[in-house]
Specification:
Number of helices: 9
Distance between the termini: 41 Å
Number of strands: 9
CATH superfamily of the largest domain: Ribosomal protein L1/L10, rRNA-binding domain
Strand content: 15-25%
CATH class of the largest domain: Alpha Beta
Structural class: alpha/beta
Helix content: 25-40%
Shape: globular
Length: 237
């Protein structure tokens, strides 16, 4: 059994574990019970009604959070030739080809998101085991395999708060919504964008209830159950 801190146990007492809360209430409550001295990340956890072992029921996509994540995003681009010039001019933090592949193979991972032009995927493919397990592998479905002329837009979106989501092996999607220091309204608007993106990403093989439960939490805090009906009503899909 995990031993919880005194502060965590005090935070739990504030939350009615049997109650579900509206998005606004859940966000405000998660902020209220945040007890750490650092600016925690506010997260949403979605329990999905799909089978992660079934190829036709995979859930994956990207969402552009309207209010970002509250932190700088270090962008790496695998590119060469003209595309390398475009990526550098667009403000990517790290741009290169074989040199970056070798650095990453050597254990360097000082970046938050990675993208690549299509012609680079043959070289980037060898990094699958390293980048894949960390959610950093460029992939067409997540919008991180990008044509050279579309790199400025993709890099700009990444900096503004574009987040990739993917179903994990326990059929849960975990996504950051911003920081505890954000206004509650901004966190709710980021949550609405997330719900909308996940609904739009519903796979053809999904059967029954697509999203089963949802909760809001902070990095170190307890979960707050979301009223799923109210949360889904925020989706514009």
């Amino acid at each position: 059994m995990v031993k919880r801190s005194k502060n965590y146990l005090e935070a739990v007492k504030v939350i009615d574990r049997a109650q579900v809360y509206s998005p606004q209430e859940a966000v405000e409550l998660a902020k209220k019970v945040s007890f750490t001295k650092f600016d925690e990340t506010v997260e949403v956890h979605l329990k999905m009604g799909v089978d992660p072992r079934n190829a036709s029921q995979q859930v994956r996509g990207v969402v552009l959070l309207p209010h970002g994540l509250g932190r700088s995003v270090r962008v790496l681009v695998f590119a060469q030739g003209e595309a390398e010039r475009v990526a550098k001019e667009a403000g990517a933090d790290f741009v290169g080809s074989d040199d970056l592949v070798k650095q990453i193979e050597g254990g360097w991972l000082e970046f938050d998101t990675a993208m690549a032009t299509p012609d680079m995927m043959g070289k980037v493919g060898k990094l699958g085991k390293i980048l894949g397990r960390r959610g950093l592998m460029p992939n067409p479905k997540s919008g991180t395999v990008v044509a050279a002329d579309d790199l400025p837009r993709a890099i700009n979106d990444a900096r503004k708060g574009q987040v990739e989501f993917k179903l994990d092996r326990t059929a849960i999607i975990h996504l950051p919504l911003g920081k505890v220091s954000f206004d509650a309204d901004k966190l709710v608007e980021n949550l609405a964008a997330v719900i909308d993106a996940v609904v739009r990403a519903k796979p053809s093989g999904a059967k029954g209830q697509y999203i089963r439960t949802a909760s809001i939490t902070t990095t170190m805090g307890p979960g707050v159950k979301l009223d799923l009906k109210t949360a889904l009503a925020m989706s514009t899909s």
